[in-house]
Amino acid sequence: MTNSKRIAFYPGSFDPITNGHVNVVQRGLKMFDQVIIALAQNVSKTGLFTLEERQAIIREVFCDQPEVEVLVFDGLMVNAAENAGAQVVLRGLRGVTDFEYEFQLATMNKRLLPELETVFLMT
Questions:
Q1: DSSP per-residue string spanning 38-67
Q2: What secondary structure letter does DSSP report for 31?
Q3: Positions of the chain with pLDDT under 70
Q4: 40 near 11, Cβ under 8 Å?
Q5: How buried is residue 111: exposed, middle or buried, by Cβ count under 10 Å (0-12/13-18/19+)?
Q6: Could you tell me the pTM of the whole model?
Q7: Cβ distance 68 to 100 under 8 Å?
Q8: What is the torsional sign of CA 77, 81, 12, 39?
Q9: What is the pLDDT of residue 3?
């Protein structure tokens, strides 16, 4: 992870992408050179939109922002973030219950990949 470009990895299902998600990305771009919206491929979950539809919708939402990339991943999020060259995981928090859950994930991610930081933004 020796990339001089500051890259944030924003994982989720984004089914559908919401104004809150867009807000987190826009604010993330003020701190990072690039935000990668990483669609988690979850075959055990039936969503509103297919993976391809979500990818297309997100690309359209951010069509004027080349610093926003959309990718699909499966497996461990930390591996996908590392492969993408990200230094930071970007997460939005709606409230206290989100924090409890996200804190546990961030702690485990830190154990798996100590160089990867997590940044929380209030939505």
A1: EEE--TTS--SS-HHHHHHHHHHHTTT-TT
A2: T
A3: 1-3, 43
A4: yes
A5: exposed
A6: 0.93
A7: no
A8: negative
A9: 58
How far CA 55 is from CA of 24, 39, 40, 49, 52, in Å, comes to 17, 8, 11, 10, 5
Amino acid at 102: E
Across the strands, what pairs with 92? 121
SS3 84: coil
Tokens of 70: 């959309």
pLDDT at 41: 81
Q: How would you class 29 by CB atoms within 10 Å of its CB: exposed for 0-12, middle for 13-18, buried for 19 or more?
A: middle
Q: What is the pLDDT of residues 85-98, one digit of tens each?
A: 999 999 999 888 88
d(C-alpha 68, C-alpha 83), whole Å? 16
